[in-house]
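Good morning,

Attaching, inline, the backbone tokens for the sequence recovery test we're adding to the shared suite. The designed sequence is right after.
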């Protein structure tokens, strides 16, 4: 892939769609509202905004793009909002109720699948992989017909011991496809667990294939529509989708479940880049409109989990670990039994906070920021959206101040104190012993700068790309494909590795890579059935009585990635970036506060709080007793001591 062309990186969040565009050392960003009715509308609007900033038309811009990366919370949102597929589930007879779980475990029938849409198949395979009972045609098709007539829009097959031998799953799928060919109106998509997971544990295999099926249709429609739209503008390469495991791959090589949490995961790559640059352990804190996503990078290592959970269900999907709590700019503030409650509900992009003037009536964290003067009503998103102070005040009066019988300003201050206490507790808990935090997301710099007054937190890093940081982090992600095979007693390790390499070369050829451009590495995952615990073992290890092993191959392709550029520090005096003062309420006191523009602060400039630093896409309140310094990379470093704001 050519490195002298443009890279386009788009992250679709619940409230905003963010873009980061790199062309050599020329970097631009964009932020547009997410279009919930059709995410590809906001996707294209964001790319068009980037093209305008690069002073090009959309088609010229995309014709010069070496790659387009796309991450999204679409699948996660579909699960949270329960807007997935109506699944009909086929399991081994006798497991219709337990679904291979043990007592007390959460089951797919508790969330993803209607218990009335679960049928058993009379079949059996033993733990040595021998077919004891082959699925009977009449009984199998009768079960499928019942599921279809009951409203199933996708059939999922997950049979016991298919890890050892997937013959019965393949047979059931063959029977369904013969009875209901794809061109028939009565046909429905069919997915079997062997197509999604080759790791042991029937319970997790079932969870994985059901989770994938649940979000398959909406993901498929949106992602292919996005690819079609950019190709209509002369872009002739694959659209690369962010995976939760830490890489990107073409749409055609992506399973729906791979994309879960891909937006927050992309942000972690930005955190890792900063950890590498500064040579320190870092807590990543991404606060957007809906949630706070936390990650930890220690010794430059990404926090990879072997089994990611979906709504409490353990799966076989590896993922970069991100912890989420409901705290964002759009978090709803209300009074419940006399107590102030903030989140986890959020107003989202539509209608948004009351101050947006789009019909929102509930009080939110952003409304409180506007009332206190922390956010400028006429410079939000660089002036692209004028905020209504009156509507923010009215919402807080009706839903918080009136209930607690205090002034609007007092109620707004309580909201800010409440959400920042929630953020502080979460950050300190997740990153015990780490003194550096990267605050990002549209609301991250707004609500974390005071953390430096907390014990153990020495500094906050805020980059010029903080408001679109997941899109920025996505620009650090390379091509990654992962392949797995069960390592059985009869298996030949070298033969399995060669099979996976052949699959990888075939897949990556379609993405523009030749065989000599692919880098391979292999590892092996162990599984203890008695403890149900995953781990890593030597590749040569075969199956033992108490341990199962899965061979795994990673195929990586080098892709254009962003890098930091260093400059020289000038004067500490920040006056050149000062645009005036405004009244801001800090705690119980209203103070005439100096306002600076982040983009105009020179490297080396120091701002002492209280102060407000405004950027096109976010606002950074600098509390009294703290300092903000622009370093040689162009990042803002906040600390309570001058010695803490010099890290480069």
């Amino acid at each position: 892939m050519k490195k002298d062309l443009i890279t386009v990186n788009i992250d679709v969040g619940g409230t905003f769609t963010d873009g980061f565009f790199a062309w050599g050392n020329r970097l631009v960003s964009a932020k547009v509202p997410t279009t919930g009715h059709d995410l590809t509308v906001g996707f294209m609007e964001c790319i068009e905004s980037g093209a305008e900033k690069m002073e090009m038309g959309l088609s010229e811009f995309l014709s010069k793009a070496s790659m387009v990366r796309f991450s999204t919370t679409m699948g996660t949102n579909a699960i949270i909002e329960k807007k997935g597929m109506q699944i009909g589930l086929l399991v081994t007879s006798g497991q219709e109720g337990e679904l291979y779980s043990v007592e007390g475990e959460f089951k797919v029938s508790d969330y993803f699948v209607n218990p009335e849409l679960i049928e058993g198949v009379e079949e059996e395979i033993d733990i040595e992989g021998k077919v004891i009972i082959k699925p009977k045609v009449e009984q199998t098709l009768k079960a499928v017909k019942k599921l279809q007539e009951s409203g199933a829009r996708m059939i999922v097959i997950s049979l016991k011991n298919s890890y050892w031998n997937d013959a019965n799953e393949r047979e059931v799928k063959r029977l369904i496809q013969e009875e209901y060919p794809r061109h028939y109106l009565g046909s429905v998509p069919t997915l079997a667990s062997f197509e999604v997971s080759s790791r042991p544990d029937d319970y997790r295999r079932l969870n994985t294939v059901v989770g994938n099926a649940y979000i398959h249709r909406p993901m498929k429609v949106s992602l292919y529509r996005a690819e079609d739209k950019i190709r209509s503008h002369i872009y002739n390469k694959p659209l690369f989708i962010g995976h939760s495991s830490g890489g990107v791959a073409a749409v055609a090589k992506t399973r729906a479940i791979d994309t879960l949490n891909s937006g927050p995961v992309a942000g972690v790559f930005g955190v890792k880049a900063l950890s590498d640059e500064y040579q320190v352990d870092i807590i990543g804190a991404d606060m957007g409109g809906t949630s706070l996503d936390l990650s930890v990078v220690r010794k430059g290592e990404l926090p990879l989990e072997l089994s990611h959970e979906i709504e409490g269900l353990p799966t076989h999907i590896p993922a970069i670990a991100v912890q989420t709590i409901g705290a964002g700019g759009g978090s709803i503030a209300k009074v419940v039994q006399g107590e102030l409650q903030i989140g986890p509900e959020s107003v989202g992009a539509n209608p948004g906070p009351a101050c947006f003037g789009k019909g929102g009536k509930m009080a939110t964290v952003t409304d409180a920021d506007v009332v206190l003067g922390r956010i400028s009503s006429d410079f939000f998103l660089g002036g692209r959206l004028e905020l209504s102070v009156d509507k923010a005040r009215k919402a807080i009066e009706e839903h918080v101040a009136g209930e607690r019988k205090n002034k609007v300003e007092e109620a707004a201050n309580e909201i800010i104190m409440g959400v920042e206490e929630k953020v502080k507790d979460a950050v300190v808990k997740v990153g015990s012993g780490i003194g550096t935090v990267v605050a990002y997301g549209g609301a991250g710099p707004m609500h974390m700068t005071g953390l430096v007054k907390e014990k153990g937190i020495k500094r906050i890093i805020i980059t010029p790309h903080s408001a679109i940081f997941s899109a920025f982090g996505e620009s650090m992600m390379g091509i990654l494909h992962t392949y797995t095979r069960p390592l059985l007693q009869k298996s030949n390790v070298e033969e399995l590795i060669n099979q996976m390499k052949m699959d990888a070369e075939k897949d990556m050829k379609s993405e523009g890579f030749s065989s000599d451009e692919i880098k391979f590495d292999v590892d092996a995952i162990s599984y203890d059935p008695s403890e149900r615990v995953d781990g890593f073992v030597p590749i040569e290890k075969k199956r033992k009585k108490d341990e199962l092993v899965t061979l795994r191959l990673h195929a990586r392709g080098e892709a254009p990635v962003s890098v930091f550029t260093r400059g020289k520090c000038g004067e500490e005096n920040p006056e050149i970036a000062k645009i005036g003062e405004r009244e801001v309420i800090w705690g119980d006191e209203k103070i005439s506060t100096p306002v600076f523009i982040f983009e105009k602060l020179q490297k080396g400039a120091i701002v002492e709080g209280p102060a407000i630093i405004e950027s096109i896409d976010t606002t950074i309140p600098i509390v009294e007793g703290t300092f903000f310094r622009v370093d040689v990379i162009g990042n803002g470093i906040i600390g309570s001591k001058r010695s803490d704001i010099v890290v480069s």
